[in-house]
Amino acid sequence: AQSVTQLDSQVPVFEEAPVELRCNYSSSVSVYLFWYVQYPNQGLQLLLKYLSGSTLVKGINGFEAEFNKSQTSFHLRKPSVHISDTAEYFCAVKRYGGSQGNLIFGKGTKLSVKP
Amino acid sequence: DVKVTQSSRYLVKRTGEKVFLECVQDMDHENMFWYRQDPGLGLRLIYFSYDVKMKEKGDIPEGYSVSREKKERFSLILESASTNQTSMYLCASSLILGQGQQKLFFGSGTQLSVL
After folding, report:
1. pLDDT tens figures, A17-38
2. CB–CB of B41 and A107 under 8 A?
3. pLDDT for res A98
4. What is A9-72 written as a DSSP string?
5. Which residues in chain B are contacts of A45 at CB distance < 8 A?
6. Are the beta carbons of B31 and A90 separated by less than 8 Å?
7. Is the separation of the CB atoms in B111 and B9 below 8 Å?
8. Cβ-count burial A57-66 (b if 16+ within 10 Å, e if not)
9. Quick one: CA dihedral B45, B49, B50, B56, positive or negative?
10. Among the listed residues A26, A45, A27, the one whose alpha carbon sits nearest the alpha carbon of residue A36
11. Which residues of chain A have pLDDT under 70?
């Protein structure tokens, strides 16, 4: 069975500082990995995804993530955060087999950017 | 832009009431999903549907049922609401593309309180 672990429930940082949100997954088969962001009072939207190919994936709003197969990780990074990045971030893995489009989500990491 | 619309942003119901949560998408997507989001637990899949009248149980289907009579509409039904069903409910839709090639589009959520 697959699972996703987000190691930090809350990450407070100052504006313009770098940030890394950690995500580890477990799976015995090939995986497809995703990061979603949820701004206050909104639904989730896709930040970036890894399907295959280059292990460094660039997403929207200056975020990027690196797929590391040996460490089973898919950490999200941004070199300089802005107040508007304050949101909850969810890592997800596509459920292998079964119907298409079925994702398993982590428990989320709340990023709080302070001035 | 894809639009996923949930009929209510906030809903207050009494224990034992039958509750309908409605979700409509305007992009002819095959897949539709209902998640509930609880603090510290992330998103958990309740049910999903990959075609009209087709549905599959997710991770926490107990106490819920769904209906998909038309492709654009996916309803979540609480047959007899209980206080432990107080939660944020998120609807999502996605296209079926190649393996892993999918993107979920989320509604803004319905905050249900059961008193």
Report:
1. 999 999 999 887 777 889 999 9
2. yes
3. 53
4. SEEEEETT--EEE-EEEE-SS---EEEEEE-TTS-EEEEEEE-SS-SEEE-GGG-EEEEETTTT
5. 105-106
6. no
7. yes
8. bebeeebbbb
9. positive
10. A45
11. 95-101
